[in-house]
Amino acid sequence: xxxHSTMSTLGSEISSLDRPxxxxxxxxxxTPPAVISLLLGVLSALSFVSHTFWIAAVFAxxxxxxxxxxxxxxxxxxxxxxxxxxxxxxxxxxxxSSLVWGVVDNLMLQRRASTFMVDRLLPILNERDLNxxxxxxxxxxxxxxxxxxxFRAKIEREIGPNNQMMFEQQAGAVAKLNxxxxxxxxxxxxxxxxxxxxxxxxxxxxxALVQINWPQEAAHDHGEAGHDSEAExxxxxxxxxxxxMLGVVLKNRREGRRDSWWVESYIYPYKGQGYVATVKPVxxxxxxxxGGH
Length: 293
Hints:
4-stranded antiparallel beta sheet; two-stranded parallel sheet; 17% strand; 6 strands; 11 helices; alpha+beta
């Protein structure tokens, strides 16, 4: 009896000594790619704010897949499959959803910009109404309660009513186009497409292309005697300089459900220059950007 009891006690002690080693041998480490995949998956929710975070969604999926493969190769040593699957799911959900949302939002922006061009701006340009063309270069808040004629009068008060050259310099490309259109009475403008859209800060920007359909005749037939006249030379110079396309840079501000558009600039002649979003300097708190006064 005593011997049997002693043997049982000894066996229990040996078993208790072996337990830590068994527990240590069953420990599995969480694979780091699974943890990073989950973190990136959560971060990819910001894809709706900026397209830059699509990178987080892509890497969440890639690292999640790598983590699952590593765990399947070493199931006794590695764990974290649940986190890896969660990272993959979040990356796919947020990444694809923001991508679809961005495409739909871009198409809607193009449609709204096209409507503004066709319904508002194109009739003004075809009517050779320079006042109204310049009027739409002002932001909606500035235009409110002011007619194009009043806006033109305001400009003339600032630069002087007789300084036509200075006025055209301030008007820029649209004044040059308007002058050419007045010389070519049969020329017509037609909206072609929205070439590109970008987000400048928080402001949607669209570059609209307008086709200028000039008359078929390249020059007026004035005969042999009139060919050397100053008017004919000026007309031929205009024909060489004029372009076939007009670029209109539009900016948008949503006021509730209402769109408020204005023209940032007219590009004439437009030869595929495109549009590059400008980065405004950071205000240092004194009303000016870096670099001081």
